[in-house]
Amino acid sequence: MKNGACPSAAEGRRPMEQPVPRVLLAGASSGCGKTTVTCAVLQALVNRGLRVGAFKCGPDYIDPMFHSHIIGAKSANLDLFFFDENTANCLLARNSWGCDVSVIEGVMGYYDGMGLTSAKASSYELAKASRTPAVLVVNAKGASLSVLAAIHGFLTFCPDSGIRGVILNRCSPMTYEALAGAIRERFGGRVTPLGYLPPMPDCVLESRHLGLVTAAEVEGLKEKLAALAAQAEKTVDLDGLLALAETAEAVCCDPVELPHYDTPVRIAVARDRAFCFYYEDSLQALRDMGAELVDFSPLNDRALPEKIHGLYLGGGYPELYARELSENTAMRSAIRAALERGLPCIAECGGFMYLTEGIGEWPMAGFLPGVCFDKGKLTRFGYVTLTAKEDNMLCKAGETIRGHEFHHWDVVPSGGSFTAAKANGKTWDCVTANGRLYAGYPHFHFYANPAFAKGFYETCLKEREARV
User: Fold this and answer.
1) Cα(7)–Cα(196) distance, integer angstroms
2) Could you say which of 57, 203, 345, 349 is catalytic?
3) What tens digit of pLDDT does each residue of 244-258 get?
4) Pair 214, 62: CB distance under 8 Å
């Protein structure tokens, strides 16, 4: 980025305006191949030597892992349920600092948001709020002229659609040549054909019950990405995509303030195949406040890092590694002992499951009651607003934060310190929380309510003072 200033909490409330060349790659629907197209474009741009920023619309953890693997830096989530528009734009500007171009991957279909009939928190809403030109990814397999009907529908469904380009996925060269001409003729420049990807069965990114298999698990990922990028160089109009990105207006926002503490704390963060679901900006918030984050592996390490003042057990796939986690009795004992003596801890979803008595037949840390079991379907899935029923480490009774649940496994009891509420009015109790603990299925992002980060940090400070 040649102009502008990097957004930071230290800049106070002075409004900022930062040039950010950017595009949003949106899907006509889930399964249209937008992640494949996004990864192909990201890798091709990196191969060109460009500094690339990457983002994911919505609460997903897995797509950003692929982005990060490609660009060699963190990929950030932009979620308009979690954040107000100003916060989302600040995170967009901050994570685009120093980049030549930023690419945002959409979520589900372009207009799909919360509920079946709402565009709230959709890719469309994010494109509109951030004034980002959108490129529609359409699955052309098994279709011809109907592709134009789909494009027409997306352009006219909302007059301010923001869709400026289209990429056809699973499209043959002959079909693309004909359709590209028809798109230019029928839409008169309202939308530009920006290329295609042919069917590439050897480059399919596998899926499982919570979405894609994580980047670390994909066999031959480097080769798949190389093949996708090489194809994108041949058949995707990357120069046209970059030119479109340059038309994006500057990002304007008021900086989001976080407190900074002169006294640092050390927080251990579980990072391995079993625990890998984190919002990177949420962790960065702790660093910006003064924390040192120390990664460790509940799968492979025998003990917690030394001289820590807090513990963060994120989500992931502990059920897939239950045997290995259970057999590491030294780590299970170390974590239970640390929590029993009052080490401050956040344990979300998979991390929460690890703290229970067991996952299926395999014993876990046993700090919390209950044995996790597979319900065989998504359970309490979706966005929630969490309201504290009692004072705890993160907040006072009555305070709220927005979060998300996404899990197949459940446990009884699952906690009663917070009330979770969905937009449709459904509510339930969840989370075990006290002055030193947050443990439950809902994930949350500190930028959804920075006061929760403050509560965690200050509890870790008390732990540091008590251990001096």
Assistant:
1) 36
2) 349
3) 999 999 999 999 989
4) yes
